[in-house]
Task: structure prediction
Amino acid sequence: MSPLTSGHAHAVCVDQRRPLSGLLCLVLLMLFTCGVWHLTRGLTVWTFEDWRQQQIAEGSLQAQEVSVKGFTPSWPWPHTRSDANARIYLVDFIYTRCPTVCRALGSEFQQMQSALRASTEPSSKQVRLVSMSFDVAGDDVPVLNAYAAQMHADPQWWQIGVPASQADATALLRSLGVVVIPDGQDGFVHNGAIHVLNAHGRLLGLYEPGQWREALNAAYRFARSAKGVAL
Result:
């Protein structure tokens, strides 16, 4: 075969591959576009918190039933049979050594506790506060009791606990979409928010730090409505 003929054959082979490469790129682009559309719920959900809000709207997030240490024995918590009054819970996830967002949320929970004590709103009697530590290794019951005393937590309104095991903590966090990552410096990076739960553990609302008044008013509304007791 002459050099010219060989070169012509090579050109033909290249030309044959080009349509295939273009088709492959088109298929990959379509798959990527479909994936983005699905993950962002039609380009409406761009952050993890957006995703959680979408899940709340769909009623898809419900706290896993787990054993908890640190609560007063008779104190109700979602899923417990003793919670006959269908209470609404305002919950944050913390660890007691946290110097940043947990402290800010602790201050807001103090303000919500004061508001609940002073409230003349009938539904306020159905609202309770919970600070749930996810630091199973570091926050045992004596540590939690000291933290509760430091925060002036009145056990009638505000209980502070920790899941009984790491498996319980992982299951609870995962069920509500709470992200906790060790920071490599004996602490954690985590998303801080006030979670509104009903007596069955369903997540009804999610409020950022600084929105404690909105969270409390939402708890009153849910306590007054049938949604507060809906399965």
Q: What stands out?
A: The radius of gyration is 26 Å. The longest strand covers residues 88-94. The mean pLDDT is 81.
